[in-house]
Amino acid sequence: MEEKLIERCKNGDLRAxxxxxxxxxxxxxxxCLRMSxxxxxxxxLMQEVFVILLSKIKSFRGDARFSTWLYRITVNTCISHLxxxxxxxxxxxxxxxxxxxLSVEPAPMAxxxxxxxxxxxxxxxxxxxxxxxxxxxxxxxxxxxIMGISVGASxxxxxxxxxxxxxxxxGTLPPGAEGRSQR
Amino acid sequence: MADQRDxxxxxxYLLGELEGSxxxxxxxxxxxEEALACLLDSYRSLCDGLHLLEDPEPPADLWxxxxxxxxxxxxxxxxxxxxxxxxxxxxxxxxxxxxxxVVAAFVVVIVGITLLLQYQIxxxxxxxxxxxxxSNIQKLRDQFLAELDxxxxxxxxxxxxxxxxxxxxYDQTLKDIDESIAKAERFYFAYPNDxxxxxxxxxxxEKKVEFIEQFKQIEPLSPEA
Lengths: 183, 225
Known about the structure:
The complex is a heterodimer of chains A (183) and B (225).
Chain A: H1 2-10, H2 14-36, H3 39-56, H4 66-85, H5 108-120, H6 124-135, H7 140-147, H8 151-169, H9 175-179
Helix pairs in contact in A: 1-2, 2-3, 2-4, 3-4, 4-7, 5-8, 6-8, 7-8
Chain B: H1 4-14, H2 20-32, H3 34-52, H4 62-74, H5 88-97, H6 99-118, H7 127-158, H8 164-190, H9 195-216
Helix pairs in contact in B: 1-3, 2-3, 4-8, 5-6, 6-7, 6-9, 7-9, 8-9
C-alpha cells in the first residue's frame, strides 16, 4: 500500500503527497512545533519538509523504512533551521513559576506548559531525542537511524536531555544555559 | 547532590535495561536510600509528563494554504500543462453512451466554470463570495473523488473475473488516465481560478468514471472458462 503511494509521489502525483500529509502530518507537525517552539516556524518547517521530500523522493530506494526516512528529513530540516535562526535559548530563570521543587504529582496543565518551555530551552540534538523518544514513542534504534548516530549516542542525548529537564523542573538549572554551548 | 552514575542507573532502570543482580542491587538501594528513591520519583514524574504531551493537530488549512501550493510550484507546472487525453467531441460521444453519469459530470463542469468566471475578478467586497466559489468547486471535486474511489473499489473486486487480456487493457488504460488526472490536478492546484484548469480537471475525472463504467458492463468469464 505504502509502496504504491511512494511510487505515485515519485511520479509527481499531488494527491499522493496529500495522502502522505494525511498519514504523517500530525506527527511531523508535532515534531516541528516542539523543535521550533512556535507555530509560525512549525508551519514554515512543514512546508520546507514537503518541498525537500518532493526533491528527494526519487532517491528513496526503500533501504530504510519510509517513516524513518521522512523523520530524518524532518529532524535535519528542524536542526538546520534552528542553526540558521540561531534561536535564542530561553532563559528559564525569567520564569518565576518554574522555580520550586518538582512535586511527584504536579498539576497536569501547569506541568505541560513548564515541560514545553523546558523542551524549548534544550539544545537541538537533545530536544530531538527527547521529543522522539519520550513524546512520540520512538525507540533508540529508530532515533539512531533517523539522526544518523549510534544507539549509544541516542541514549546519551536522551539521558542528558532528561537530566537538564529534571534540573529545570527542580529550578536548579536553566537548560538554556548549558544549551548555548551545545551545537 | 546526586551522583551522575546514579542518574544513569535510574535512567537505565526506567528504560528496563537493568537486569539480574544489577537490578536487584539497585532495588535494594532504593529501599534504603531515600535520596535515590526521590530522584527516581522525579525522573518518573518527568517521563510521565512527557508521555502525556500529545502531538498537536496542525492547522486545518495548513495543507491547502502552504504545503500544496509549494509542492505544485516545485512540480514545474509550466512544462507539464496537462493534456486531458481526449477531445471534446469524444467526450460528447461518451456522454451519449452513459447519459446519467455524463450529464451529472457535465453539470458539475459547467457549474464549476460558471462559478469561476463569475468570481474571477476579485474585489474586497467579492472576496468572501470568491472564496465560497472556490470552496464549492472543491466540494464538487471531493464528490467526484468519492465516486471514483467507490467505482475503482467495485471494479477491483470484479477484475479477477475478467480475462487476463482485459485485465491488462484495464490496468494500462487506467494508468494512462491516472497520469492525465495527476497532470490536471497539478495544473488545477497551481491555477485554481483558471477556467481551463477546472475544465481539464473535471474532464479527466469524467473520463475515468466513464471508462470504469464501461468496463463494469463487460460480462465476466464463466466459471468453466
